[in-house]
Amino acid sequence: MRSIRRVMGVDPGLTRCGIGVVDGYPGLARLVGVDVLHTPADAELGDRLAALEDGLVQWLDRAAPDVVAVERVFSQHNVRTVMGTAQAGAVALLVAARRGVPVVWHTPSEVKAAVTGQGRAGKDQVAFMVRRLLRAPGLAAPADATDALALAICQLWRGAAMARLAAGGAR
User: Fold this and answer.
1) Helix/strand/coil (H, E, C) string of the chain?
2) 147 assigned to active site
3) Would the pLDDT of 112 be above 70?
4) Could you tell me the CATH number of the domain that includes residue 69?
């Protein structure tokens, strides 16, 4: 029998931070919860990061995930956007670490490939496949939320495979 895992995906961002929680194992995922944390663009950086921390703490306490999957920051043209994304991702890492929850990082192309089969899939394709994989055709969620769910699904499926490979290499 396969062990059911709970994964919380975090699509980091200062203005919008997607949160998605799924239960399951490779080949099966069930929606637990989804949300987008918002912070006002005109607020001080410290206040925005503190607000994200509060929201992430609430989600970690409520969902009690086995692992947190965070999107790895990749090079973009806008350095300011990259910095905000990295700072939000660091808050997710810090909050999870304080609770002893392991954190894994996935690139956008890894996530897209895991849920759509194609590493260059668009946001619409990712959202469509997230709805399909979770058997939630009526899920009306913004891209930040479906991206977070895609991260969680990616970890649910790829994380198990990576753990088996690591265990085999340790022998």
Assistant:
1) CCCCEEEEEEECCCCEEEEEEEEEECCEEEEEEEEEEECCCCCCHHHHHHHHHHHHHHHHHHHCCCEEEEECCCCCCCHHHHHHHHHHHHHHHHHHHHCCCCEEEECHHHHHHHHHCCCCCCHHHHHHHHHHHCCCCCCCCCHHHHHHHHHHHHHHHHHHHHHHHHHHHHC
2) no
3) yes
4) 3.30.420.10
